[in-house]
Amino acid sequence: MPNFKKYYPTWVLEENHPVCQAAVAAYKDTVGDAPKVDKWTFSTNGIATMGLHKIPTIGFGPANEVYAHSVEDQCPVDHLVKAAAFYAAFPAKYLAAIKK
Q1: How far apart are CA 61 and CA 38, in angstroms?
Q2: What domains sit in the chain, N to C, each tagged with a CATH number?
Q3: pTM higher than 0.70, yes or no?
Q4: Is 94 in contact with 30 (CB distance < 8 Å)?
C-alpha cells in the first residue's frame, strides 16, 4: 500500500465570488431568509475540490452543523425539503451570476 502523506488544505471562497453569490440568492429564494455565510469547523470534500484543485466550492447542508460527522448526526425532514429546493435553484442562480 502506498504511503501517502495526509494533507488537508484549508481554503476560503470570498463572499463576492459568483458561486457564493449564487448560493446566497438560491437560499433567499427557497428558504426566505438570508443565509449565514461563514466557515465550517469540520472537514469536507472541499479540501480536494477547492483546497487542492482550486475549483470554486461552497459548503451547504440541511442540518445543524453541530451534529455533522458525529454519532448524533440528524436532520429534520423539513430541512431536507428546503435543502432539495436550494439544490434545484442553485444552477440557474449560478448561470445568472456568471453572465453578469
Answers
A1: 13
A2: 18-98 (1.10.150)
A3: yes
A4: no
